[in-house]
């Protein structure tokens, strides 16, 4: 939806940021489990890394636009 219209409402951007933070915390969880429990699941770790990397671009847009009080619009 954001790619079609080029803009997003504030509530939508907050929702997407929290989804991205969830993926980031999953990655932290897998690192924690590896160091303290000795458990390692390669597929889960790689999926968490890929998901977090996909959200990184959105995090940058969120920080530069929404946290400064502007409406999120995709760069042209």
From TrEMBL:
<keyword id="KW-0472">Membrane</keyword>
<dbReference type="GO" id="GO:0015031">
    <property type="term" value="P:protein transport"/>
</dbReference>
<keyword id="KW-0256">Endoplasmic reticulum</keyword>
<dbReference type="GO" id="GO:0030663">
    <property type="term" value="C:COPI-coated vesicle membrane"/>
</dbReference>
<dbReference type="GO" id="GO:0016192">
    <property type="term" value="P:vesicle-mediated transport"/>
</dbReference>
<keyword id="KW-0675">Receptor</keyword>
<dbReference type="GO" id="GO:0006621">
    <property type="term" value="P:protein retention in ER lumen"/>
</dbReference>
<dbReference type="InterPro" id="IPR000133">
    <property type="entry name" value="ER_ret_rcpt"/>
</dbReference>
<dbReference type="Pfam" id="PF00810">
    <property type="entry name" value="ER_lumen_recept"/>
</dbReference>
<keyword id="KW-1133">Transmembrane helix</keyword>
<keyword id="KW-0968">Cytoplasmic vesicle</keyword>
<keyword id="KW-0931">ER-Golgi transport</keyword>
<dbReference type="GO" id="GO:0000139">
    <property type="term" value="C:Golgi membrane"/>
</dbReference>
<dbReference type="GO" id="GO:0005789">
    <property type="term" value="C:endoplasmic reticulum membrane"/>
</dbReference>
<comment type="similarity">
    <text>Belongs to the ERD2 family.</text>
</comment>
<keyword id="KW-0653">Protein transport</keyword>
<feature type="transmembrane region" description="Helical">
    <location>
        <begin position="38"/>
        <end position="63"/>
    </location>
</feature>
<keyword id="KW-0813">Transport</keyword>
<dbReference type="GO" id="GO:0046923">
    <property type="term" value="F:ER retention sequence binding"/>
</dbReference>
<protein>
    <submittedName>
        <fullName>ER lumen protein-retaining receptor 2</fullName>
    </submittedName>
</protein>
<feature type="transmembrane region" description="Helical">
    <location>
        <begin position="12"/>
        <end position="32"/>
    </location>
</feature>
<keyword id="KW-0812">Transmembrane</keyword>
